[in-house]
Fold these 4 entries.
Entry 1:
Amino acid sequence: MNIKGYAPGWQLRCRKCGFTQDAANAGIVRIRAFGVRAGTFGKKLILRRCPKCRQIGFHALELEHDPIDSHFEQKFVKIIIILLLFLAIFPPSLFFGIRYELSKATVYQQAVEQISHNPDVIKALGQPIECKMWNGSIQNGHAEIHFRVNGSKNSGIAYIIADKKEKNWDYQKLVIVLNDGQQIILPVHNTRF
């Protein structure tokens, strides 16, 4: 039975259990759709007890077949999924892309070359020697960086201080500090790689 002034075509949905009933049967009066719209996707929310789950909560007052709202909800869900995928993929790819570009820095590559061919380093660390990604800074032709150096027998951290003169790097310091505290100082005075 649909009384004039009640809400033809509208339904009341429990947001907890999903139970849906005709708004007119639920006693909802909706004259000329006047009122404040709020809540999810612009639906009006009404606080009441659900006849099925018996929980008190907000029920959504919505059209039985609202293609505009349904279309909007589908678009909204797609946008949220795209944003979540973007947030899941973009930061790691940006981080690893930057780290990859940093690994191609000339000052780092030249130091790795010097370390991996130095007989004192090979004796202390063992072969093969693996150098990890560097940390530190390279600004205005001045580099202060450090990175992990691993070998088959031991490992440590390489510390570099270098200045760029024209197209070459002058290394003031190239030291490897092993895990046991021993230091290997590589000869770099007036040497350009």
Entry 2:
Amino acid sequence: MKNRLLCTLIVAWAVPCTAETLRDPTQPHQVVDTGTVGGSTKHPMLTSVLIAKDRRVAVIDGVTLMEGSRGAGMELIEVSATGALVRKDGRIMRLTLSGANMTKERR
């Protein structure tokens, strides 16, 4: 009897915990602008971009990623001259370029 009660309590406690992490796939992603978000939560930091005819690259938290690639727990969706769009932990974040470190390809 005690084991059955204990199992019931564990299941009853675990079900609401897992329901909080689910996201409705029909809802649009929330875009977080890390340039305006403050606080102690660590957000990825974009430090450099490179835009060429054949590739777009961003350096985020010291990791170099090509547009469309994954690494460092995130996916680089888009690179622009002023920032980048990344998906991390199921959220889409707009990173702004800190400083003027854009590299233009010379041809």
Entry 3:
Amino acid sequence: MTAFLTKYFLPLACIGVSAWLIFDGQAQVAKAQENRASAQQELTVAQDAHLALDRLGDSKPVLSEPESAAEEARFLSGLRRHAALQGAAILKWSSTTEVYKEDAKMPEHKALVGLTRVTSHLSAVGSYASLYKFLQSISSSQRLYTFSDIRWTRDSAANRLTFSLTRYVEPASQTSSQ
């Protein structure tokens, strides 16, 4: 009896479980592709609306954001959203900050005194098209960003994009008085 079970039933059970796992995995992939397509469509609609507002002249660029505990979290969350909507993913992220101070040698920079320059160093992966769209979506943002040190690399697994993205943050005292 055990020989019969081992010879016939066990292989059939293994095949059945394997088929179920494959079917379930395919269903999850199909659902993820639907979600991505829906998110891309929403992004396209939002970008079209944004472009329409730009043509009407109703939107103004944002050069800097007010300083707050949540500014960096909002920034990173926005970057991750931009990446995900374009089919890319952020792997690594770090940042450095520099506060502009008054400098007698550079009087033309007096208007910058108090602003904080935050430079984020990022590494993202995805297809070439998704990384290109990711950069494009950031650069079309209303907020002022400066890109530098952009490097594209490709290995057997994926395309990798590393770059530095600089943004500006106003002191809380400046924004509260406006």
Entry 4:
Amino acid sequence: MVFEKDTLCGLFHRRALRLGDARRFLSSRFNDLGVLTDEYHHMTWKTVRDQVIDFARGLVVLGVAAGDRVALLSESRPRWIIADQAIQGAGAIEVPLHTTLTEDELAWMMADSGARVIVTSTADKASMALRMEEKTAPLPAIIVMEPWNGDRPGNLLTFNEVMELGRQGISIQEMEDRIDSVDPDDITSIIYTSGTTGTPKGVVLKQKHWMANMKQAANSILMRRQRERGITLTHLVHLPLSHAYGRTSDYHVGGLYQGNILVFTERFESLGETIREIRPNVIISVPRLYEKLYDRVHSNVAGRSPRVQSIFKWANTAGMDFTGAMAEGRVPSLALMLRLWIANALVFDSVRKRAGLDRLVLAVSGGGSLSGDVCNFVRSLGVQLNEGYGLTETCAVLNFNEPEFSDRSLKESTAWRGRLIDGLVNLLVRGQSQGRNPFASLSRICTLYFISRSIGSMLCIKPGTVGRPVIGTDERIADDGEILARGPQVFEEYWNLPHETGQAFTEDGWFRTGDIGWFDDDGFLSITDRKKNLFVTSGGQNIAPQPIELALTAQPGIDQAILIGDGRKYCTALIVPDFEKLFQFAESMGLAASTPEGLVNTPEIQALIRSRVDEVNRRVPRHEQVKYCSILTEPFRIETGELTPSMKMKRRVIEEKFSREIEAMYRDRGGEDT
């Protein structure tokens, strides 16, 4: 079977047939029974394809037909990808669901999508689906990825049992014919939006949408050369594949298109430890990961001797000067490159190794705004950190701040320019993936200097922006500041919501992103805030909360912050401290605080947080200043409902949950209108 159609499943089977057992594809701590173990287990492309075909055959035996909806309620793991490909191969429509859903939310989405079968990760999730059946019609099948212990109803099967059903019930040839019949215009998935501002909407995404965006997101010079030269990198997968961002970036681009190895980690909380263990080449994450790195390094330096602090400051300045030159299209001087070499030897090399980033080729931040200070700092370490922007409705990627020719009409295929690009790939991709940092060797840094002088001014990347629109995408700013977009990756409809679909587009067919932003003279986009997040104080002042929140969380000791003030006299904030750092501060000050509650009630800690807030206030206009803040004892979490699966704050939920704390900041305060 050739699998010639331009579909996700066609691409997967083409690559799997070509690579077979010669290359590893998926790695995790889950064994062949779906049980979590202490050691890693590796699956080749052939192994994954065999299981995809068997599971797809099992779904067909269970009665899944073309166009049927199959729900997938699972954390990111190899069987998520196997189930996804099997659902596509059966001609069905996948409904990926976030694992943080409540039973009521699960029941609503199952009913709204009309899903007939659900695939779950754990026995707990399967039990949740069984309880949900009490509120909805019974399902023909509930499938669990791990073994099931004890009694069970007749419609519950394990993942392995479904594969065995398939092996006994349908021939491989019949299954391959079904896979080959999947068309680019077929619906691949219905992904429900996070519901930050209301009821979730089912975004209908077709094979052609995903395929277009995958190619758009993998169009940079270095990624094209990686594919052409067959360089295999290791992705550390920790974002939920149920979300469009992680699915496109890690699974589609990294796995299917680039042919990279996907290594799964189980928990975001232990991500730092896993990074040090795996030493990955690619990390696709959210701003919080890089903010944590920034805070950790600066906190460690603050506790060192004045001499160490002075050396770090000097090295950091050298790194910032280099990233500044790259952002402005200036060729770094040889003197600056030599400073960077010394800075690497004195500081950056040890920082990267301690953090497990010494083999990191590419880091990407998305799903929220990243502070310019954090971005520039991470890049100054020699880590290629790029930002992107997009929505579920655009298969995740609209903009990507990638190393690319400033004039896209330039051709890299001339012999001389091609050799220079290959030199960059050797330094920044192949060498870096093997732990040979380009800034750690005098010979490598001189080579990088020579290449930079030749083509460096042609390459353009601007930290602090989300980059230019990806190829084939048009964007413009509406009169009210909203970003409008159109392109082959943009969805066409919400599931069963024709009115909302119409509202999502302008009369001439541009998609309304709901975000406010602006373009600079080079076409790089900066995001100001969500349109629905903007608020007006009772004094008539318009405020975009996101920049102020970013400034607050960039302060040492503050982990999360949400600005309050819509219809109010003045702005206030809910502050979640960085408890690890504050406990260290309390210990150094001899303060008796052993619990988060005790910590935040300590006058010295309250004064410290207030001083951080005042530092931000000094840099913003009076009407944007935070007059009062309430320090919380627990962080905002996905599990407790304050964050979406992509780590965005659910403002309405937070304001309702902490209404007492908010009202206390306005009650009897007597503040002036701002």
